Amino acid sequence: MCGIVGIASKNSIEYREWVSHSRDLLKYRGPDDFGEWWSNDYRVGFGHRRLSIMDTSKAGHQPMSDQSGFIHIVFNGEIYNFVELREELTQMGETFKSDCDTEVLLCAYRAWGMDCLTHLNGMFAFALYDARDKLLFLARDRIGEKPLFYKISNGELRFASELLPLIDENPDSKLIDMDALDLYLSFGYIGGNYSFVKGINKLPPASALLFDIKKGVTKSWKYWNPPKPSQNKNHDVIRESNLLDELEKLLEDSVQRQMQADVPIGVLLSGGVDSSLVTAMAARKANHVKTFNVRFPGYNKFDETQHARLIARFFKTEHIELEAQNLNADILVELSKKIDSPIIDSSIIPTFMLTQLVQQHCKVVLGGDGGDELFGGYKHYSRLLLMENYLGKIPIFFRKHIANFSEKNIPVGNRWRNWLRSCGEDLKNDLPMVSMFFDSEIKKNLIKGKEFTLFAENYFKANIPIGGDLLEKATRMDLSNFLPDDILLKTDRSSMLNSLEVRAPFLDYRLVDFAFGKVPSYFKALPASRKYLLKSLTNRVLPKEFDQKRKQGFEIPLDKWLEKGSWRDLFYDVLRDSKSIYEINTIDKLLIGQKKGRNNSERLFGLVFFELWRQNHKLKI
Questions:
Q1: Residue-by-residue DSSP string for 117-144
Q2: What's the number of CA atoms in the CB half-sphere (13 Å) around residue 290?
Q3: Do 362 and 264 meet the contact criterion of CB atoms below 8 Å apart?
Q4: Are residues 125 and 14 in the same domain?
Q5: Which of 195, 286, 479, 498 is within CB 3.0–4.6 Å of 355 for a Cys-Cys bond?
């Protein structure tokens, strides 16, 4: 895992210090080695920070050039099928001088050109310069595990693994993109190719971009989409046992591939379905598996120690229990200074602390990200199906009246507000926006001197998947948006700030193709149950005492913390400060609602996180 930066221009670049300076801003992403490369005409420059995982020798140094001297690359990530690719490319006449996947990627491009992307199984973001055609080629993995941002101006393109190196030092250029802020306030993350800073874009998952430095023009495209929904609704034809056999085989192979490393590797074990299945597969492939669990003293409700211990004992892993201390508000202040993109997800706090602790014991860990999106694990999936069952029979005319009344009259933080304001949707063709933090009614009076259009709402509508049933739409929407721009962002930034690589076996693209191409909705979630197929697999491979029904999630007792102490003081100080961008009347209503027991803690967290981040990086609205 690494940090990459670079620049390409129509003209020779005079201020070349930008590359080394920006590269070293990302030192935590790669503390083991660093490098820099420039083309002979100084029109292209690459910078790299390395976290050595595969072939830790100097042979894996980047930026790397091919043997012809025409093709150059900076690469962040892991190619899990690089051994097979290397064998295939060797048979085609390619030769290798290292054991690292970066060289395999270089040779794959030389053999297949930009079609090399379809051959890759991994998590990655890379930039490749082909001096023969003066082309810069950027690409990101299918699911979006590894980030890549870019900025184009006056015939010049700059890119980086994170947003901060691309923010111009010119105060007049440090402007918040209001459409991106609208997305953040609405959904808690920024989807698509948007970023918080005007003029800087994010390369979306499964996307590539080509920059012609002779002409200064770009072309971008998507190279992969999950398969279309299966049209086979015959329960008798689709046998559960066959699906389970294929799922078990795919997950076992994915875990085996992702356990390849030349450094110590472990498993993040919460004791839930996903991490327990990953542990089970890892134990099949290695005699000595390390597992890690974290607990928070004083908060028994959030303690998963006993569930993790059960799995660790059953599979005889070397189990390490870590204790997180000092969960005061200073950690949020610290994160706001370091992170490049805030999210409305307070679980980033325990995630950051967990990776900080695990890094002291190993350099790579496997996690359970993706299981919920692929196999129907979130609570709102079952609730959507209940809504479809009961409200679908009521004429939409009446439901729209209920929705309008709810938006204007039910207070923010009421647990039913989002569901009632969404009940006017056409449940056959649309997807209700049940997970909004700030809807259009709240956003009207939230930011001083600013009004929002319906950009976020229109963005959501435009990106609803076509075809499939309601659950298909919901899971595909989460796969394309919530997963990469909240869950994977949280995992990547939290782990890389601590120089730790986290891998996600469930996100092997073959498992994604299986989940969305072969598994019907009724094997994922029902109104009364979730993650059916994965739980069936637990019956095969986990101990009988395993509790399938628990779904803790990685949470902190934020509601409790906001009653008094450092968290309450920080929230009040930031939100009610005269320098804040927020309207004080709206803030006071949210704070009063929280005191009355309404569910506003995550909303308040998102506002505080963003405002701390904005002020730290001197960005203007």
A1: GGG--EEEEEEEEETTTTEEEEEE-SS-
A2: 18
A3: yes
A4: yes
A5: 498
Given the structure tokens 């994170």, which residue do they identify? Answer: 162
Sequence-ordered list of residues with C-beta below 8 angstroms from that of 35, at least 6 positions apart, any chain: 47, 48, 50, 61, 62, 63
CB within 8 Å of 15: residues ≥ 6 apart: none
**Domain housing 286:** 240-324+342-376+475-541
Lowest mean pLDDT among 57-66, 379-388, 529-538: 57-66
Cα–Cα distance, 6 to 413 (Å, whole number): 44
Residue 450 domain-assigned? no
Q: How far apart are the first and last CA of the chain?
A: 34
How far CA 601 is from CA of 314, 542, 595, in Å, comes to 38, 36, 10
Are residue 78 and residue 170 in the same domain, yes or no?
yes
The amino acid that residue 314 corresponds to is F
CA distance 509 to 524: 18
Q: How many domains does the chain have?
A: 3
Question: Is residue 457 one of the residues assigned to a domain?
Answer: no
Cα 153 to the center of its chain, rounded Å: 27
CB 190 within 8 A of CB 198: no
pLDDT of residue 326: 66
> What pLDDT shows up at residue 401?
87
Q: Which of 149, 144, 163 is nearest to 512 (CA)?
A: 144
SS (H, E, C) 543-596: CCCCCCCCCCCCCCCHHHHCCCCHHHHHHHHHHCCCCCCECHHHHHHHHHHHHC
What CA–CA distance (Å, rounded) separates 74 from 50? 10
| 458 C-beta neighbours (distance < 10 Å), count | 11
User: 578 and 545 in contact (C-beta within 8 Å)?
Assistant: no
Put the strands of the sheet holding 156-160 in their side by side order. Answer: 33-38, 44-50, 2-9, 156-160, 149-153, 200-202
Number of Cβ within a 10 Å radius of residue 581? 18
* 3-class secondary-structure state, position 479: helix
Q: Picking from 136-145, 299-308, 373-382, 417-426, which range would have the lowest pLDDT averaged per residue?
A: 299-308
Residue 314's pLDDT is what? 96
Whether residue 68 is found in the same domain as residue 204? yes
Write down the mean pLDDT value for the chain: 92
Is the CB of residue 488 less than 8 Å from the CB of residue 506?
no
Angle between helices 455-462 and 178-187 (to 10 degrees): 70
